[in-house]
Amino acid sequence: MYRYDEYDQSIVDARVEEFRDQVARRLSGELSEDQFKPLRLMNGLYLQLHAYMLRVAVPYGTMDSRQMRMLAHVARKYDRGYGHFTTRQNIQYNWIKLDQAPDILAELATVEMHAIQTSGNCIRNISSDQFAGAAADEVADPRPYAELLRQWSTFHPEFSYLPRKFKIAVIGASEDRAAVQLHDIGLQVRRNDAGEIGFRVYVGGGMGRTPMVAPVIRDFVAAGDLLSYVEACLRVYNRYGRRDNMYKARIKILVHEIGAEEYRRQAEEEFLHVKTLGIDPPAGEFDRIAAFFARPPFETGLSDVIDRSDPDFAVWVDQNVRAHKAPGYAIVTISLKPVGGIPGDATADQMDLMADLAERHSFDELRVTHAQNIVLPHVRKADLYAMWQQLDAAGLASANLDLISDIIACPGLDYCSLANARSIPVAQKIAQRFASPERQRDLGELKLKISGCINACGHHHAGHIGILGVDRKGEENYQLLFGGSGAEDASLAKIVGPGFSEDGVVDAIEKATDLYLQLRGDGERFLDTYRRVGITPFKEAIYG
């Protein structure tokens, strides 16, 4: 993983001291809340319903054990003993005291972590595939390019005050594990006919009030032109993006309104100019960055056999362990979705355990996933059973990856001042209703996602089943959506019909999944069956 150089460290240290002064002036009354708000947001500090919330960046989801231990330390010392991993591969703390926020940032800086640009109208944390550098289907590791984008975008003078927040994702395989088509800019590593590395560029995707799947703006941008092309795309947005209406300010609106062809024309024209400015790094600089992501020293001659004599372990392997590019190794996903738990939450003790396991068994690497789980990317198959036993003892061995209880959920009205309804209790009730592991496995892959408001932090538009919490005459109400996907077959879910109460939406999901079991064809997921038969039979089953 990337390690800070002297410039990175000095930037982060300087920002900590700047923010310490800003907080002191707010506490003394020299700054009003209106004056302080943009300053705290650019440092990842939100004012929620009950307390301040701090969002800490985990660039492209990659960190090491010392960083995870620091996150555990922050949870113990400054929060209530836990943290919440998010869909942007960040972590949030929900009970922060303002006067302690600079101390938290100072402690994070000692392990090369920060909260810079995790909020505000800027380029947010660059996200990526949690299996990067390990996946057997990978064309190339996308993380060096994600790191290049991180360095380019941090405090970029032209893009520090965009019309609206801006999100970029980079993947390196044909399977999309980061929802690139639902980002402002999505980048997919590929090779052209000459075997050269480059990127397919998607622009104008997103969820929220007006969800859209991004069109392809360029099928191939050479790796050496990446920064210039992305800069050109952003310049066109910065020039025309709406600043007078926050609901029409995202780049997806611009691309939609002027059309993909016209946006492409302007981006290409701008690219010709930007390319003359020399912002793309020399090969030596990219090689310097890429060296931090070198292949770990995998052992050779390891057995690929896994002893499955323990049936519970065998189920976990089948569900949560994925193929690795190196023989004798596996990719392990640690589920943060126990039945009855809060999706994405981990206690300080659990974070420490995951750090220990990464240090001992995964070349000191962990990954945060956009589905709010944790990955150990490089685990010897011979170590899986011992690891599983430790995870099981800590409540971290739920064998539910991509099943109905592997729910993405935002914090909702329990914490968020923007929410209209609670997400967490709904997620808990659904997981409890479908608690039977056998029942979950029978249903198969079923991605369920819950948002407490139209801002879609829970990605409900991309759920095979999505739930949107709304305010209906002062009561919490839940709209049900079917047919979304954030994968390579990206699609937007559609509202099924009138909304439900908290218990009613759980009943409706049960009716829909029961119908799916009756209708599914061989090998069909819930999403496949829905796409084949359409919404009508599901509406009839749900509303009767």
Briefly say what this structure is.
The protein is α+β, with helices and mostly antiparallel strands.
Strand order of the largest sheet: 1-2-5-4-13
Give the strand tally.
20
Strand count, sense and barrel status of the largest sheet are: 5 strands, antiparallel
> Distance between the terminal alpha carbons, to the nearest Å?
54 Å
Report the radius of gyration as a whole number of Å. Answer: 23 Å
By DSSP (H or I, 4+ residues per run), the number of helices equals: 17
Provide mean pLDDT, rounded: 98
Helix % is 25-40%
Shape verdict: globular
Question: What share of residues are in beta strands?
Answer: 15-25%
Low-confidence stretches: none
Which secondary-structure class do the elements indicate?
alpha+beta
Structure description:
The protein is α+β, with helices and mostly antiparallel strands and 544 residues long. The chain contains 17 helices and 20 strands. It has helices at residues 6-28, 33-41, 65-78, 101-109, 143-153, 226-240, 251-258, 260-274, 283-291, 311-320, 348-361, 384-393, 424-433, 437-443, 502-519, 526-533, 536-543, and strands at residues 45-47, 52-56, 62-63, 82-85, 91-96, 127-128, 168-171, 185-191, 197-203, 216-222, 321-323, 329-334, 345-347, 366-368, 374-380, 408-409, 448-451, 465-472, 475-482, 494-495. The protein has a five-stranded antiparallel β-sheet. A five-stranded antiparallel β-sheet has the order 3-14-15-12-11. A five-stranded mixed β-sheet has the order 6-7-8-9-10. A hairpin with a 5-residue loop joins strand 11 and strand 12 (329-334). Helix 1 runs antiparallel to helix 4, helix 7 packs across helix 8 and helix 13 crosses helix 15 (502-519). The longest helix is centred in the N-terminal third of the chain and has 23 residues, at 6-28. The N and C termini lie far apart (54 Å). The mean pLDDT is 98.
